[in-house]
What we know:
Elements: H1 2-5, E1 9-14, E2 19-22, H2 24-29, H3 34-37, H4 42-45, H5 51-61, E3 66-74, E4 80-91, E5 97-106, H6 108-130, E6 134-139, E7 145-148, H7 150-156, H8 160-163, H9 174-178, H10 181-192, E8 194-202, E9 208-219, E10 225-234, H11 236-258, E11 262-267, E12 272-275, H12 277-283, H13 287-290, H14 319-322, E13 327-332, E14 338-350, E15 353-362, H15 364-418, H16 424-454, E16 462-464, H17 466-480, E17 487-491, E18 499-501, H18 503-521, E19 526-534, E20 537-544, H19 551-554, H20 572-582, E21 587-591, E22 597-604
Parallel strand pairs: 17-19
Antiparallel strand pairs: 1-2, 1-5, 3-4, 4-5, 6-7, 6-10, 8-9, 9-10, 11-12, 11-15, 13-14, 14-15, 16-18, 19-20, 20-22, 21-22
Helix pairs in contact: 15-16, 17-18, 18-20
GO molecular function: ATP binding; phosphorelay sensor kinase activity
Keywords: ATP-binding, Kinase, Nucleotide-binding, Phosphoprotein, Transferase, Two-component regulatory system
Domain PAC: 191-247
Amino acid sequence: MFLEHVPAAVAMFDRDMCYIACSQRWLTDYALDGPSVIGRSYYAFFPDADDRWRDIHRRALAGETLHCELERFRRGDGSYDWVQWEIVPWRLPEGGIGGVMLFTQKLTGSVENDERARAVKRQLDLLIDNVQDYAIYMLDPEGRVSMWNDGARRLFGWDEEEMLGRHYERLFDALDNAAGRPRHQLAKAARDGSFRDRSLQLRKDGSHFLADATLSRIRDEHGVLIGFGRVVHDITDEDEWRRMIAANETQMRLILETIPDAMVVIDEKCAIQSFSAAAEKLFGYSVPEVLGRDVTMLMVDAEATRNGDDPACFGVPGNGHIVGQPRRVIGRRKDGSTLPLELAVGEARLADRRVFTGFMRDLTRRERADAQLRELQNELARLSRIWAVGTMATALAHDLNQPLAAITNYVQACAQMAKLGENEAAGAMCDALAAAGQEALRAGAIVQRLREFIARGELSLSREQPDVLARQTCALVMPGGACPDVRYNVDMSADINPVLIDRVQIQQVLVNLLRNAVEAVGPGGAITVKATEQWDMMCLSVIDNGPGISPDIADALFDPFATTKSTGMGLGLSICRAIVEAHGGNLWHEAVPGGGTAFHFTVPMVIRGPGEFSDD
């Protein structure tokens, strides 16, 4: 029982080294047959025992106890066993040495495991020390550094000798230590298994870097905490790049979401890849409704424009010719309505494929405004002709009424005198003169009706901003000007008080004055439109840098038919004065020092109250 309960292989020998007894573990470890062992010599089973072992046996039989912590023994098959052994003498009752007892314990598995562990440790140490971008170090259960790799030295600046045995609080600044952050991390890792955070780490030189750090709990096979491992990665540059990329992405997204132009991205097969918020608003489709679909759904008759395998980019054939060339196309909304668009297409390459980006601007308002501008120009030209004819008719009526009235008087007088005669000729003369008088009266009535027909009626007054009115009028004059390179300048602030005028008539006054100024200054000239407040009236001025007005015509400048133009009628300024005076204002001109002429006219001004703003 003693032999079987000893935690080792045991054999008992007599003084001749013959077996007296052995444990079952001995038989198992050395592959022996139990019944054939007892009484036989040790050397019969281990014939390879050398002189060293024979000497060990002699020394033990002489009373000496010998042992070895670890020794390698060669097996019969050529393999080796690692064995821990001890040999002790045993004594007879009378006190003499009866033989020896040999205790052995095979440690081959443990030794091999230890060797593998040491090899792995050497490889791991090499691997850890060659990690360039990571600091790896081990802590004991109290947080003291027990291993410090070369990456930690490079990252933190501390040598291994400076850190071993020191608490890792050394790697935190004073504020973190005062807040107990290192202790908190150890406690959390011990409780949860690991602790990870991104924070500033302290270097030996006092500088900081942004790090991604993981603190992991380490336990032995029995679950006992034996320390911690910490891996620290410098992410300063990575974080900077991420922030930069995120900022760029945010900026680009905000730009694309806020620009008024619709943006659509398609691939080489004309499938829509991106659809901006402005495109959603313009076409009435949501993003899920269009992604992956053919872009021709947004165009009118786009299918007819395809050119072989070349994608019909946004309904335009031959994309190689339209990239970077804005053009007008017709788009189709979700509800089926159409609209004119200005399309600009850009091309980009992503790896081995192409994508096309189309920027589309709605031309509806621009084209409507152009049409309205042309209509207004035509209307102003028509009104100008009507006013010219009206003024002419008024002048004619005024000048013809007196002679016509005289003719009527003379003819009627002749008719009265002829009535005194008695012959038939006198009667015929009376009838003819009476008829002539009637026709003269009829001509005067026609002229009077014409005068009444073109006479100015009631003014249609409205509240207008002088700066807006001046800019719109300049826009009307510029397209049709004889000198397109004349410079126009509207010198008025946006917060100027409004005026109460008939907008069309005052605009006609400005058109007339501006056209006269354009003809006066010629190519390269400059014209300025200004406004000055004068009590309850606003003075509008058109100032040019032309040669000025000749003194010969200056006094009669506003008279009908007074003109210096070879083809002019001399009615424009006369009409302008009549319009201005109908508004309760005055129109006059003066020379500009250094050359040029300034025409001024006044119109009623509206004084805004506190907190009141312009309708524009």
